[in-house]
Specification:
Oligomer: heterodimer
Number of strands of chain A: 13
Strand order of the largest sheet of chain A: 7-8-6-9-10-11-13
Strand content of chain B: under 5%
Radius of gyration of chain B: 21 Å
Structural class of chain A: alpha/beta
Number of helices of chain B: 13
Largest sheet of chain B: 2 strands, antiparallel
Largest sheet of chain A: 7 strands, mixed
Order of helices and strands of chain A: HHHHEHEHEHEEHEHEEHEHEHEHEEHH
Distance between the termini of chain A: 75 Å
CATH class of chain B: Mainly Alpha
Shape of chain A: globular
Helix content of chain B: over 70%
Radius of gyration of chain A: 24 Å
Number of strands of chain B: 4
CATH topology of chain B: ABC transporter involved in vitamin B12 uptake, BtuC
Number of helices of chain A: 15
CATH class of the largest domain in chain A: Alpha Beta
Strand content of chain A: 5-15%
Distance between the termini of chain B: 12 Å
CATH superfamily of the largest domain in chain A: Response regulator
Shape of chain B: globular
Chain lengths: 434, 340
């Protein structure tokens, strides 16, 4: 194109023609795009979520029976247990008579954990016979609010809300309450919703109860061991309870000076003389970078216990440790039950425990909860997710060699009411349920 | 660094040579001032952290810093070419994860490391080609163009990886990270080599001079007979290829490909390039300054981590230090009489 063509003004007729073309073209392009666009929003261009659901107390043989505790980051409702009376009603009949519709907003459609969670819920909805729509909150408050409005427009019978921004809970509650649609809050509590979650505090505690004796059996002591925990600061207090209570319990078991949970906040970086907290933001790369930096402050011969809020973070931290050739002096525990982490548990001698929340199968429990709620059952304040801390000798019981779940742990007091719905029995994979 | 105007064909040969030499001397002086400004600031940072934390000035931490800055350094090495030519490339934040995921998938499929790296570079080149053609042929602003391709490449990375982290099945694929020379990983050496090549290209080749000319005045360059569109396309291709290679490096570091890596590559690389003395309007900048800019960013991050500054405060401190660094450079420019 020559300079004279660039600078020549266009005539009125040419301008009108171009405007008309735009006016015709834009609606055509928009409708084509709308027809092609999938219902679920595109994966987010963001880093892996820090709001990872972390594991629950172990149902593994070595651990104590799970406590019915529910630690909520905003309010702390004590989990009153066993709504067994309510659970004796037969919601399945009512739910089965009509095909109910569900809408589900996932916290994020990227990162292994959340993709698998979302897919699992969608599959479970099909098996359970629900109509289903899926949305992506993209770990973003305004997006979650917008999705909530879109969901209520469809008037589903129940909403599954997985929102990663805890502070907008009231706004979400208002939208759902105004539309008079019951909802289940997944992992992160939303006021007014029935809460489905693991208990991060217990996961951290139980993991420490497994890891520290192993360290002591190797001759490690409080004098020569540093605990490195990788938080995800933006995930909120509840999610980070796992690393917080891991540190608290480890300090107790190793004979270190007492550490209170309140001593470990998002701004904490050193915990006494034996603890370090870095912020991996829940991602592989950031955790790798932060642990690499932190290793510069840990003397070479020192033993290390490594733990984090999700598998991506632990893997990133582990990679930093192995790159620094400090593997033999490190014990790692993972959290999330990802395929990569399960492989580490099976093959890596230093990776001794893996908390699993069986996120891929949360859908079954959520469908059972939905059936119960729509059938008139009043669930407890917290319905516990399936969870177990896996060890090398029991990982095969729950997962096959390819990392697929073969068995879910048995129901506990906080989710026993789901048995009466008959939904879990359709999946034929819950231990003790036929 | 800008070319001094030379009215060719109107002077005696000896005068022409003298004019060119004078122009080169002036460029060298200006470049030296730029590097001196940010370089002095970097020395101050080093001194500060050396006193603030005992673990800073150690050999292993020096290797650690070099290792930390390599990924952003590679991206910045490509970004500086684009910025000098008058554009910029935001799509690098998508090309890095796309490169990482592609490399992981290829090596897991049995492709040997070197061909896999070449394939990833080809993917990067393709993205750069698209960027360049859209900017030159369709006349769309680089901001919008590369914002669009950022979204596309990021989406592709997530699509290819299905949103999950892809661990290397063959640990040998992490050779860039696992092999070392004197403690330096191969990827650090590769970064050094790429920097030398970029420096030589900008400083000693006609191609480099043409980039400065385009960045200085695009229309005048076109009128002078430079193939501006072709050069622009080539620059975007080089930039994307560097970003793709950075993706290979980060996946080698992590022994996994993930679509979540490199999310801040665009802004960090642009910040490093601007810190190093380049101008967003083009025609100014160079590799040495960019390298120092990269080191400033990486050293600040490392130093604050060693001082165990909480992550939230680190973000605030980083922003303050960046403004100080740019202000320092600006002060130098004012004192030297450079009003641009």
């Amino acid at each position: 194109m020559s300079i004279s063509q660039i600078s020549a003004p266009i005539s009125r007729r040419q301008a009108l023609r171009r405007f008309a073309a735009l006016g015709v073209g834009l609606p055509i392009v928009s409708s084509v795009l709308a027809a092609c666009a999938p219902q679920a929003q595109a994966p987010a261009a963001t880093s892996a979520p820090a709001a990872a659901p972390t594991t629950a107390p172990a149902a593994a043989p070595t651990s104590a029976p799970p406590k019915p505790a529910a630690t909520a980051p905003t309010a702390a409702p004590a989990a009153t247990v066993a709504p067994t009376a309510a659970a004796t009603t037969a919601p399945t009949t009512a739910a089965a008579a009509k095909q109910y519709s569900l809408s589900f907003a996932n916290v994020l459609e990227s990162g292994e954990l959340f993709v698998q969670l979302g897919n699992g819920i969608e599959e479970a909805a099909k098996v359970a016979g629900f109509k289903f729509k899926r949305y992506n909150n993209n770990l973003d408050g305004p997006t979650a609010i917008n999705n909530a409005r879109l969901m209520v427009q469809d008037q589903p019978d129940l909403i599954l809300e997985y929102n990663g921004v805890e502070g907008i809970g009231e706004s979400l509650r208002k939208i759902f309450d105004d539309a008079k649609i019951p909802f289940i809050a997944i992992n992160v509590p939303v006021p007014g919703g029935v809460w489905f979650n693991l208990v991060n505090k217990e996961i951290g505690t139980d993991t420490a109860n497994i890891v520290v004796p192993m360290a002591k059996a190797k001759g490690w002591t409080g004098a020569d061991t540093t605990v490195v925990i990788i938080q995800g600061s933006t995930a909120g207090e509840e999610v980070n309870d796992c690393v917080r209570y891991f540190m608290v319990t480890t300090a107790k078991l190793l004979g270190l000076p007492e550490v209170q949970p309140s001593d470990i906040t998002a701004l904490t970086t050193t915990i006494g003389s034996n603890g370090l907290q870095v912020d991996g933001k829940g991602t592989l790369e950031e955790s790798y970078n932060q642990v690499k930096n932190a290793l510069q402050t840990i003397p070479a011969g020192r033993h290390i216990l490594l733990y984090s809020i999700n598998d991506d973070s632990v893997i990133g931290g582990w990679r930093a440790i192995s790159e620094s050739q400090r593997e033999s002096n490190t014990i790692v525990a993972g959290l999330g039950g990802s395929v990569a982490a399960l492989e580490e548990l099976r093959t890596n001698p230093q990776w001794v425990a893996e908390g699993s929340v069986f996120a891929t199968h949360w859908g079954e429990y959520l469908m059972a909860m939905a059936t119960a709620i729509l059938g008139g059952v009043t669930p407890p304040p917290l319905t516990k997710s399936p969870q177990a801390v896996l060890l090398k000798d029991n990982v095969g019981k729950y997962y096959d060699a390819e990392g697929k779940v073969t068995l879910l742990p048995p129901l506990v007091a906080e989710n026993m009411y789901l048995k009466a719905t008959g939904v879990l029995q359709k999946f034929k994979n819950v231990e003790g349920l036929s | 660094m800008t070319d001094a105007p030379v009215a060719l064909g109107t002077r005696e040969p000896a005068e022409q040579v003298a004019a060119v030499a004078a122009g080169r001397r002036e460029n060298l002086i200006q470049a030296s001032f730029q590097i001196l400004g940010i370089g002095t600031f970097y020395v101050l940072i080093l001194v500060f952290f050396a006193f603030a934390t005992p673990n800073f000035l150690t050999y292993s931490n020096t290797l650690n810093i070099l290792s930390n800055v390599t990924v952003i350094g590679l991206v910045a090495g490509g970004q500086v070419l684009t910025i000098i030519s008058g554009g910029f490339d935001l799509s690098v934040s998508g090309v890095v994860p796309l490169g990482a995921v592609t490399f992981a998938l290829l090596t897991n499929a049995g492709v040997v490391t070197v061909p896999a790296i070449l394939a990833v570079l080809a993917v990067g080149g393709l993205v750069g080609l698209c960027n360049g053609l859209i900017v030159t042929r369709l006349g769309i602003n680089p901001l919008i163009t590369t914002l669009g391709t950022l979204s596309i490449t990021t989406g592709l990375a997530y699509t290819l990886s299905r949103g999950v982290t892809i661990p290397f099945r063959n640990p040998a694929a992490g050779v860039l990270a696992d092999r070392t020379v004197g403690g330096l990983s191969w990827y650090v050496l590769a970064f050094a080599l790429a920097s030398v090549i970029a420096f030589a290209m900008l400083r000693y080749t006609v191609f480099g001079r043409m980039l400065y000319a385009i960045g200085g005045n695009r229309d005048a360059s076109r009128l002078a007979g430079l193939r501006v569109d072709l050069l622009t396309v080539l620059v975007y291709m080089l930039c994307s290829m560097m970003a793709a290679f950075a993706g290979v490096v980060v996946s080698s570091q992590l022994l996994a490909g993930s679509a979540t890596v490199g999310a801040d590559a665009a802004l960090s690389s642009i910040a490093a390039v601007i810190l190093g003395g380049a101008s967003l309007t083009g025609g100014v900048g160079g590799v040495p300054g960019t390298l120092i800019g990269v080191l400033v960013l990486g050293t600040i991050s490392n130093g604050m981590a060693l001082m165990q500054v909480p992550a939230f405060y680190q973000q605030i401190a980083t922003g303050v230090i960046l403004l100080l660094a740019v202000g320092f450079g600006r002060l130098r420019a004012v004192l030297s009489g450079d009003s641009s």
